Amino acid sequence: MSIDLWPELYRKSNVLTGNVAKVKVLREIHRLTSNTSTTSILDIGCIGLRPLEFWEPLLDDPSVHFRLTGVDVKDVEQARNMVVQRGWSDQVVLQQGSGYKLKEIFAPQSYDIVTANQVLEHIARLPLFMNQVAAVLRSNGQAYFTVDSAHWRSRFDPREPVRLLKNLVKKGLSLTKYERHYDLPWEDTEVEAACRQGGLKVVECGYYNLAPLKFIHNHIIPSGQKNAFMQLWSELEEFLNSDEAVKQKTKKFSLGLYLHVRRC
Predict the structure, then answer these.
(1) What is the pTM of this model?
(2) Would you call 90 exposed, middle or buried from its count of C-beta atoms within 10 A (0-12, 13-18, 19+)?
(3) Is residue 42 part of a domain?
(4) What is the C-alpha to C-alpha distance for residues 170 and 185, in angstroms, rounded to an integer?
(5) CA nearest neighbour of 86 among 112, 111, 117, 50
(6) 180-207 confidence digits (pLDDT tens)
(7) Which domain, by its residues, includes 259?
(8) Which of 100, 142, 213, 244 is the most exposed place for a label (fewest CB within 10 A)?
(9) How many domains does the chain have?
(10) φ and ψ at residue 145, rounded to 5 degrees
(11) Residue 14 lies in a domain
């Protein structure tokens, strides 16, 4: 199965993220923003340990046309300084805020695309979050999510008593809206249901990041060969996701979920 929608991606000098689902989002955004008028994109939780690391391959590609707004709950000023240093000021705007309050920060139907990569595992109130996403998406706007999968490792497994206790505490605190330390994976049906409740239609749900291959990519493959490995790895996982029966039987081996949704 060929996935060379953007073959140059794997030949770039910067090492791609070791997350196949996120690379799939990169390819989709590249497809949507190539040879078009400027696309407006909102990325929720964009800063992380390396601000805008996910966006580097796109921001450095002159063939795509988009304006990026990033929102995060902290470290925004530091990230703004980095944007200036990298010469991205004309293309990137960063704001501080919560994914639960997008309606308060942005005008209705402001964005063509919304992304949230490895953010949903920190969101306890998924329907509320999805409702906020739907509110800022334009008609037929699209959103892409990557999130840790609970199919790989149960959140509440009695065979792991210490982890079970920690996760029960996190879940209990989240019921009081204390989510500072919330980081629990989700099952596919839970995320899909939250999308529907929030006014979003699920276009595609896939399962990515086979655990042994992720370990090999991150800890064994030399830096200079990681992108080539990622291309092969991505192709394998796209093949597994191309057959519904196969992907349902193999999803328990994958660390992450990928969801593509559309505003109803």
Answers:
(1) 0.95
(2) exposed
(3) yes
(4) 12
(5) 50
(6) 999 999 999 999 999 999 999 999 999 9
(7) 7-150+182-263
(8) 244
(9) 1
(10) -125, 140
(11) yes
Residue with tokens 């699920």: 202
Which of 217, 216, 145 is closest to 185 using CA atoms? Answer: 145
The predicted-structure confidence for 47-104, as pLDDT tens digits, reads as follows 988 889 999 999 989 889 999 999 999 989 999 999 999 999 999 999 999 999 999 9
Residue 166 lies in a domain: no
What CATH number did the domain enclosing 213 receive? Answer: 3.40.50.150
Per the CB < 8 A criterion, the answer to whether 148 and 211 are in contact is no
Distance CA 104, CA 99 (A): 10
